[in-house]
Design a protein that fits this description.
2 domains, mainly alpha, elongated, Arc Repressor Mutant, subunit A
């Protein structure tokens, strides 16, 4: 495994969570994540980087600042869709995911972040520390949002 692959696997989850927590808009997080790692990869090919993690976070932070200025619209990342599913299943899942994403964008940013981080595997305790709210508030965000989504999807 190359140095970059090892770094990517070691840093991915923590960096993704950092981007979510720092974003003022969750629409283009996946693009920012990809572009940050691409920048690190290109830089590694041309010269040695003393502190890869520091460089990655600096690039990510700069991309977040740039994104805030541009405020582009997002499109659902199709990597979520499993390639083994039939076309019909992919279409239905994509429609459902777009509905969920569209609904989440109507919510307060802290609710979006809590929901997103929870489903990325972050603990409620860690989410509450990161968002600087108590654990019961995070549980409330997730519970109410899930309940509202279930009701919406039944319609």
């Amino acid at each position: 495994m190359s140095e970059f692959e090892e770094f990517y696997q070691k840093s991915y989850t923590k960096f993704y969570q950092f981007l979510i927590l720092q974003a003022s808009n969750l629409n283009n997080i996946d693009d920012i994540l990809q572009n940050a790692y691409l920048a690190v990869y290109k830089k590694m090919k041309n010269q040695k980087i003393d502190n890869l993690e520091s460089y990655l976070y600096k690039v990510g932070w700069n991309l977040l600042k740039k994104e805030r200025k541009l405020s582009k619209e997002c499109h659902l990342d199709e990597n979520i869709l499993n390639t083994y599913w039939s076309v019909e299943e992919k279409v239905l899942l994509n429609e459902d995911l777009n509905l969920v994403w569209k609904y989440l964008k109507t919510k307060d940013l802290s609710i979006q972040k809590a929901f997103y981080l929870y489903y990325l595997g972050m603990s409620i305790k860690d989410i509450s520390k990161s968002l600087r709210v108590n654990e019961s508030q995070v549980k409330n965000y997730i519970y109410r949002t899930r309940k509202e989504l279930k009701e919406m999807m039944k319609k």
